[in-house]
Specification:
Length: 309
């Protein structure tokens, strides 16, 4: 009597008939590349570079004084951009001793053109979107902040390539900016916002004190003039002079303080952007071909490779 087992040969044939090939397993996606962890943020590194300069306070004061002079203040932007440019090439030199040079003025003017173009675009967009109920003001503020970030990054790319056209490579700028939004926003916005807030508070105090001083000085003159039925022209002008004098002097103080503050904020922002480019956009060092150095270079002084002669 045969058992109920299926012969081995028949089982093998049945297994071959019922065999279903397995679908290929797709390869596992590679893990995202992790960004290196830096000991210091871009702003902290920029501040360390500034403090490394002997007499850095005096240099910032000189930059602030130059900033007070219209047109000539283009030099400040060019000076800071050239100093920031060395960082992606490995340079860590102190702030340069020469401020007013032809190259600083030229590339400072290019930086002004970039800011002007971005400002016009932001203003037009703000006028169009500003009519949106409730959200118009917020949209305008967001556009202003975005414009400040864009202008700073465009200026940095411009100095890396040494042509104003390099600053308007919008596609590359957008791709690079996404590599680290946090550090980019921190570098381009925080110095200006913090310094601007401090200057605004100090300015309000100075102007208020000047107005109170002017009103206190003008009060006796106003009382004596009111006792006369027909005050003379000289008395009126004297009263206006007493009021306007302290106010104009206070306004001048506020203007100078604002220029010094802008110089400090710009120094932090530009040097910080140099560190940002070194970390997240090192390919920008290839935007312009390097030129032979005029003297032997050192790791601390790479002579800004690519500087046009």
């Amino acid at each position: 009597m045969r058992s109920g087992r299926v012969p081995l040969r028949e089982r093998i044939a049945m297994d071959q008939m019922n065999y279903q090939p397995q679908a290929p397993v797709p390869p596992a996606a590679p893990p995202p590349a992790s960004q290196p962890v830096y000991a210091k943020g871009c702003l902290s590194a920029a501040w360390e570079d500034i403090k490394m300069t002997p007499g850095y306070v005096g240099k910032l004061v000189v930059l602030g004084l130059i900033m007070c002079v219209p047109i000539l203040n283009f030099v400040v932007a060019g000076y800071l951009l050239h100093w920031a440019r060395e960082v992606p090439f490995g340079g860590r030199t102190p702030m340069p001793p020469k401020y007013v040079t032809g190259k600083n003025f030229e590339y400072g003017f290019y930086a002004f053109v970039i800011s002007l173009v971005v400002g016009i675009v932001v203003s037009v967009a703000g006028m169009i979107l500003g009519f949106i109920p409730l959200l118009g003001a917020l949209v305008s503020l967001a556009l202003s902040l975005a414009g400040a970030v864009a202008a700073s990054l465009m200026q940095m790319r411009m100095i890396m390539g040494y042509t104003i056209g390099d600053g308007f490579a919008v596609k590359d700028l957008w791709a690079v900016a996404q590599r680290n939004w946090g550090q980019l926003l921190l570098v381009t916005l925080v110095p200006g916002v913090v310094v601007g807030f401090i200057v605004a508070v100090v300015s309000m105090v100075v102007l208020l004190f000047a107005m109170l001083l002017a009103m206190g000085a003008a009060m006796p003159m106003a009382v004596s003039a009111s006792a006369v039925s027909d005050p003379s022209f000289g008395e009126v002008m004297g009263l206006l002079g007493v009021i306007a004098g302290p106010t104009l002097f206070a306004a001048l103080i506020v203007y100078v303080l604002a220029c010094f503050a802008e110089a400090l904020a710009s120094t932090l922002t530009m040097r910080g952007l140099g560190h940002w480019v070194a970390r997240y956009a090192p390919e920008w060092t290839a935007l312009v071909a390097p030129v032979p150095p005029t003297y032997p270079t050192t790791p601390a002084d790479p002579q800004n490779p690519g500087v046009p002669q």
